[in-house]
């Protein structure tokens, strides 16, 4: 029986607004792929990202263009060669993983040797704002052990100080979203080190980060926009100390596993991160992140409404997905 694919655009309201250096949004726009075969259905979710030239319509069209290949039974290995990395491939790849698990009865966690599964401590993201507003966010979440703080402007020192003073017991990741410059980075790194920051994510624009090879790293620096697939990694040796793996960048769990293993071989620490999406998007990433150094899978915590069933969060602990959700 041929496989049948359906594609749906969905919107989930964000609790308040989510703001980074490139702008704000009030809802998560996601695309959900469902692939059916022999009475079973596998699902995958992706989040198109404008930073990489993606739109909802464009990603949906790319998925629709694969309808015939999917009906003919394309597997995940062939999918990597048939589509570029990105959100569209991610949704299909994750749907295929889920379908395979349901058809075989064997959980994805077993297939990727991620057992025994455990609950993970995830970062919780604070949106970019004025120092006083960011301090208020930090105070409201000061009991969380790990905070990820969006920065990337002229007033970042004040923002950093406001957050560290408001949440003195939390470890803090700074995410500049490419918002620093070669003129500000040395001073900002030194200040971050003084404030006890644990990690700094993508301080400089991708492709304009060569200075990182020549300056001290008093705080470890993590690549995000600079890394998508395993083939990107060799060029990052000496520039970055860690890499942020997101399924919407790698184009699915299949390539993400390759990227993770190669990053370990090259000595990088691993962060597993996400776009702002629902529990369906986070579920495969929770399996990928079982041995990660940093976990940033708080997407559902930022939403006013998640899917049902969804992942279970207890404070900052996220439990592995129930197989009725994914995998």
From TrEMBL:
Enzyme class at the top of the EC tree: isomerase
Mandelate racemase/muconate lactonizing enzyme C-terminal domain sequence ranges: 131-222
NCBIfam families linked: racemase_DgcA (NF042940)
Cofactor(s) this protein cannot do without: Mg(2+)
Keyword set includes Magnesium: yes
Protein name per its UniProtKB record: Dipeptide epimerase
Pfam families reported in the protein's UniProt record: MR_MLE_C (PF13378), MR_MLE_N (PF02746)
Domain of life of the source: Bacteria
Isomerase recorded as keyword: yes
Cofactor remark: Binds 1 Mg(2+) ion per subunit.
């Amino acid at each position: 029986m041929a496989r049948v694919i359906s594609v749906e655009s969905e919107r989930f309201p964000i609790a308040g607004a989510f703001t980074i250096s490139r702008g704000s949004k009030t809802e998560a726009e996601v695309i959900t792929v469902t692939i059916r075969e022999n009475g079973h259905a596998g699902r995958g979710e992706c989040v198109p990202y404008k930073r990489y030239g993606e739109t909802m319509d464009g990603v949906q069209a790319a998925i629709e263009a694969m309808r015939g290949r999917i009906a003919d039974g394309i597997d995940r290995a062939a999918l990597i060669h048939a589509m570029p990395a990105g959100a569209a491939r991610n949704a299909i790849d994750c749907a295929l993983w889920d379908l395979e698990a349901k058809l075989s009865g064997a959980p994805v966690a077993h297939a990727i040797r991620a057992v025994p599964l455990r609950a993970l401590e995830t970062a919780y993201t604070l949106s970019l704002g004025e120092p006083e507003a960011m301090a208020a966010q930090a105070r409201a979440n000061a009991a969380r052990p790990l905070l990820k703080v969006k920065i990337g402007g002229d007033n970042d020192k004040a923002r950093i100080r406001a957050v560290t003073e408001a949440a003195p017991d939390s470890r803090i990741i700074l995410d500049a979203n490419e918002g620093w410059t070669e003129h500000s980075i040395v001073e900002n790194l030194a200040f971050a080190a003084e404030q006890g920051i644990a990690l700094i994510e993508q301080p400089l624009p991708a492709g304009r980060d060569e200075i990182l090879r020549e300056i001290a790293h008093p705080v470890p620096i993590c690549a995000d926009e600079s890394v998508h697939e395993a083939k990107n990694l060799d060029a990052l040796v000496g520039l970055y100390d860690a890499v942020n793996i997101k399924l919407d960048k790698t184009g699915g769990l299949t390539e993400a596993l390759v990227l993770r293993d190669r990053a370990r071989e090259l000595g990088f620490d691993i962060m597993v991160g996400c776009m702002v999406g629902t529990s369906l998007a986070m579920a495969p990433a929770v399996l990928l992140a079982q041995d990660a150094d940093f976990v940033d899978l708080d997407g559902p915590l930022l939403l006013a409404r998640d899917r049902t069933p969804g992942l279970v969060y207890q404070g900052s602990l996220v439990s592995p997905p129930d197989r009725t959700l994914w995998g």
